[in-house]
Queue: 2 jobs
Job 1
Amino acid sequence: MSIDKQHLRDLPSVDRVLREIPQLIDRWGQERVTVVVRAALEQLRGTLQAGACNKSELLQQVTGQVSARLEQDAQGSLLSVFNLTGTVLHTNLGRASLPDAALEAVLSAARHPSNLEYDLHTGKRGARDDHVAGLICELCDADAATVVNNNAAAVLLTLNTLADKAEVPVSRGELVEIGGSFRLPDIMHSSGCVLVEVGTTNRTHLKDYQGAINANTAMLLKVHTSNYRIHGFTHSVAATELAQLAHHHDLPLVIDLGSGNLVDLGGYGLPAEPTVKQTLDSGADLVTFSGDKLLGGPQCGIIAGKQELITSIKNNPLKRALRVDKMTLAALAEVLKLYRNPDRLAQQLPTLAALTRAPTVIRAQAERLAPGLAQALAPRYTVTVSACQSQIGSGALPLETLPGYALEIRAADASDAAIRELAATLRRLPTPVIGRINNSACYLDLRCLDREQDFIAQLGYLRSLMAPPIPTQAGIS
Ligand SMILES: *Cc1c(COP(=O)(O)O)cnc(C)c1O
């Protein structure tokens, strides 16, 4: 027998390992633990070096690996992170964070039965939308409203209800793609309607719409070009004009607002955008918008406007496939209630709190954190406080930036490789830190850092993850 084969014989059997770890079996179950033990033994068999360890060391090694693997699997992959990218509503990082009131409502809705579709007055069946429809109507002065899974679903359902197999003229300049997965032409195609492109990329006139309307036209659609803007020789048709044209032909006008805000953001020192109420006032029959963009709520899509159109939408069988769950409704209702008091909104709604955070406050935080971070990253990196511009994100107000401050991290060797390595290390922290790389530096924009103590608590661990410094001459001798 070769030395290698002899060595493989020293590997413990699956049963031998299982006898060693009753507490793991108790916690994770016999079947799961057995699978993990088999995998660990298999892996060891492939890497075992002759004479590397003795029998008891091998047993220890296997049980250690099994325990670590089981813990790791239990962690799941959806983790809380620090969004220090400088984009407040970051689609890849989950967009809006919910206020406490919404979290409590979610917990209660999730934990206990509720009157989700039950009318407590009559004792009969109720409608789930009713828990939020009244609030939406109150806040945007609409006749009726309904809620679906997201704004893409809101657009899809509206088109399918009002324009299946019929024509919908849309300005070429508004055929947007949002975040790669929402492309207006694709959604229109999926909804069963026929897209009729009118005008040109930069200029669309009322007469372009006029020319496109025929007996097969079902509605007019205007899309808020959330994430880009064309400058220069441009023209688009205002909602009021388009509404007049639509109504003259007895057609509804639907406006996809995208982010859709319920209050005038100008009042908070932010760039103003038309509110849902203003858009309805300008003549739109229906407006669709997202729940988790500027609104600051859970992921959902809201459709608000004329009663009879909302009724048709609610009667569409697709509505059942796109409906929201009770946790979403619970969260949305609480977020909407906060809008009843706009004076306190900036303190109570995390999205608005982040958007309106004063630069001086962010700067003071940066100055508090810089020395600790510098210490954790020394000597390979240096940290300075630098002014930066944050973005609102999620296609909302794309050209407007918000002045703030960031921790600017640079590598002592000034290399891009070192900066990429640092970014990777920050992502490996228990609560991963996601920054932004630009010009050979890594910027941690502090606008969204509300858990300062949790950030500080990780610095010791961060230090331990940094590669040991290259020994100095003195160290070698
Ligand atoms: C973001 C956006 C959408 C998609 O909304 P989701 O809630 O992400 O589905 C659709 N239309 C416009 C104009 C948008 O900005």
Job 2
Amino acid sequence: MRYISTRGQAPALNFEDVLLAGLASDGGLYVPENLPRFTVEEIASWAGLPYHELAFRVMRPFVAGCIADADFKRILEETYGVFAHKAVAPLTQLGANEWVLELFQGPTLAFKDFALQLLGRLLDHVLTRRNERVVIMGATSGDTGSAAIEGCKACDNVDIFIMHPHNRVSEVQRRQMTTILGENIHNIAIEGNFDDCQEMVKASFADQGFLKGTRLVAVNSINWARIMAQIVYYFHAALQLGAPHRSVAFSVPTGNFGDIFAGYLARNMGLPVNQLIVATNRNDILHRFMSGNRYDKDTLHPSLSPSMDIMVSSNFERLLFDLHGRNGLAVSALMDEFKATGKLSVEDDRWTEARRLFDSLAVDDEGTCATIAEVHGETGYLLDPHTAIGVKAARECRRSLALPMVILGTAHPVKFPEAVEKAGIGAAPQLPAHLADLFQRAERCTVLPNDLKAVQAFVGQHGNRGKPL
Ligand SMILES: *Cc1c(COP(=O)(O)O)cnc(C)c1O
């Protein structure tokens, strides 16, 4: 499989190089040159497979030529063996034909474990073979950081530096990062906000001199391997609900358009998906596009669902590429326009094409808490604020009551106690057994000023198993 850039000017790469790349050299994002397409018979034959075996069948075409079948099988069995629930991604029924796909049974209690547990192991495999070491730098508002650290903690070939905004992530989220100790794991609390952290990661990718030749790898959802891993659970859920002989709808709490883009790809690979609902919080740039063809940058509104607090959606460019007939130059021109004006819209027929599949809703904090309370009242089930937004959007935007509606349960409610408390239901979520002693564990973290040079000097000093590069 070869991968091409959404802006059409960068060289095509194989899977291994895409895994190790950040953005393409033309500023675009990598996508598969040709998407595999499965037949109805093939998909039907996968019913009942354990999660890792289904994962092998769905992802095999994407890694073909780079990772041998036997290695890939072993890696997948290990990856999904660490999940707490035997079903890996269990479905829980909320209402008539309405289901939550619980994607929070992994080590850090959010869906990002599905991709980052795999990414860490794939990196380890590829880097061992190449006899190479890399540095990972990432910025997190909470969930990505802990999932990336958990995914990479056992990788001998990786030093990982995760920046979070000092005192601006929840205590559970911070402890999930800072209590994982290892000479290759470095938590940095930046005296600034999430955007400051993100900017320093971007600047470090743009000018890598401070790394003295060591390669820098991205773990945010611009990395293709993350999207790839997320395609699998759409197949997993739909197969349990009657696919490929019945269509299924999904409602996806989304910020960077990563998770929902994976659902879009699952559909293009042959899964019968009749509707995809983009569920956002007040940071609703995606809803503005889907409802009115206006993709306009706004200011940031901090919310009770912080993992979706974004101003622009990095993976949206991957959808734009398809909407423009995979014409990289057209996408490049659009993105230039967006950079200059903070706005973009597409031609009417392209927007209509998007709307054939996608609906959307933006839900504010009040609506989020009301939905947590509503569902708790109906069923006793406790939603996290991100998943609650998905449920609300599913209930408002659903096209067919006859088809199953699956809401992606993106996090465990214990990660976001503030929203649950504000919902006023008197129930407090409990930490699952494997994290029961989280508040007793030792923490390790370095506080640094909001200063690129200071951060890069720190990476240079510790980037080789805690020693200077
Ligand atoms: C990251 C995250 C999201 C948003 O995912 P995208 O891929 O950015 O759309 C939603 N919910 C939770 C809990 C998350 O951690």
